[in-house]
Amino acid sequence: MADAAQQTPRVAVLGASGFAGALVARLIDRHPFFRLGAITARAEAGMRLDELYPHHRVPSVLSEPDVEAIADAHEVAVVGYPHGASSEAVAALHARGLLVLDLSADFRLRDDATYREWYGDVHAAPELFGTAVYGLPEIHRGALAGVREGGRLIAGPGCFPTAAILALAPLARAGVIDEVIVDAKTGVSGAGRKLVRSTHYVDVSENVHAYGVAGHRHQPEIRQELAVAGMDAAVQPVFVPHLVPVDQGELTSCYVRPRRAVGADEVAELFADAYDGEQFVEVTSAEPGMRDVQATNFARLRAHVDPRSGHVLVFATIDNLWKGTSSQAVQCLNIAYGRDEDEGLR
User: Fold this and answer.
1) What is the mean pLDDT of residues 89-106?
2) Of 126, 189, 285, 293, which residue has the fewest beta carbons closer than 10 angstroms?
3) 172 and 304, same structural domain?
4) Which residues touch 82 (CB under 8 Å, ≥6 apart)?
5) Which of 178-182, 230-234, 244-248, 256-260 has the lowest mean pLDDT?
6) In total, how many domains does the chain have?
C-alpha cells in the first residue's frame, strides 16, 4: 500500500467501463483533493476512457485489474463490478489496507439468511459480510466519518433504496409507518451498460412497464435501513420498480398508512428536523420531477398528508447515476477524509 501519510489520496476505480465506474472516474479526475489513479476494465483494457465515454472527458487509459499493483499505489479503491463479481476484489484490496467502496450489492445487507434468501449465494467474503458502513451520508454520516479507522469498507446503496430511504426515514424515526408501498420509476441507465446495449429502442420508447414484481432485490435493503431508522421490523414494504423511457433519473412515490393519525404540520416538522441542515436534500412544496436533479448529487422530496385517507404521500427524485450511485460514493469519500461534503460535487 502507498504511504498512509500521503496528503492526497490516490483513488483506483475498478470496473470503470460501466456507467457508474466511468462517472466515479470523471468526478475523481476533477476533484480538488483526491487524485485519480488506475482505472480498470477487462474487455476495454487499452482504450482511453474518453474514447468509450467522450462526454466524461477523462483521457486516462483503462488497464487490466491488478490487485497487487493497485494496492501498492493507492489508498482508496472504488469497485464498480456487478453483484457476485465484486466480493473477491473487495476482500483482496481490503486485506491490503485500502479503504474500499463497493458499488455492488455484495456488502449492503447485514443478515446472512436474508442475503441467501434474495441472492441465493454463499457470500464470497464471509469474513467481511455485515461489516460495511452503509454509504448513505444523510443516515450514516457518523459511521462514515470513522470508517478509515474502523472497518475500511463502505457499501454503496442501491439507487432505489437511496430515494426510498431518504423519503421514508423521517417517518420511520417517528415510528408511524404501519404499511408502505414504494412505487419507483427509473431510466434505462439503471439496467447497466451491458443490458442497455442489448435493449431495443422500440421496447423502451413510448412505453412504461413494471419489473421485479415477484420480489426485487432492493426490497430487503429498504426494509433493513428503515428498521435501523426506527420502523417496526415486522413491516414489509411493498416495492415495485418501473422502467420509463428516459436515459437517467428516478422518481419514487411512497404511500404510507400511518399507525396513528398524523397531520400536515407534524409531517412537515419531521422532514424539517431530518433535512434542514443537509446540503444535498431539498424538501419542497411542489411535486419533484427527474429534471430537477439531473446530473447532480441532490435528492428532492415532497411530503403530503391526504386528508381523506389519512395516508402520507412522499415523493423523492434523484439521478440514479449520481446521487443514486457515483456522486454519492464521492460524497462518502469526502466524509471519510474529513472534507467538505460538497467538494468536487458542485
Assistant:
1) 97
2) 285
3) yes
4) 104, 192
5) 244-248
6) 2
Domain that holds residue 124: 10-131
Q: In the predicted model, is pLDDT for residue 3 greater than 90?
A: no
Note if 159 is an active site residue: yes
* 2 lies in some domain: no
Show the cell assigned to 304. 403530503
192: left (phi over 0), alpha (psi -120 to 50) or beta: left
Collapsing DSSP to helix, strand or coil, 113 comes out as helix
Contact 100, 128 (CB under 8 A): no
What is the average per-residue pLDDT within 74-78?
98
Record the pTM.
0.94
Burial 264-299 (b: 16+ CB within 10 A, else e): eeebbebbeebbeebbbbbbeeeebebebbbebbbb
Residue 20 lies in a domain: yes
In a domain, 22, yes or no: yes
Beta bridge partners of 184: 241, 252
- Could you report the per-residue pLDDT of 102-132, keeping only the tens digit for each? 999 999 999 999 999 998 878 899 999 999 9
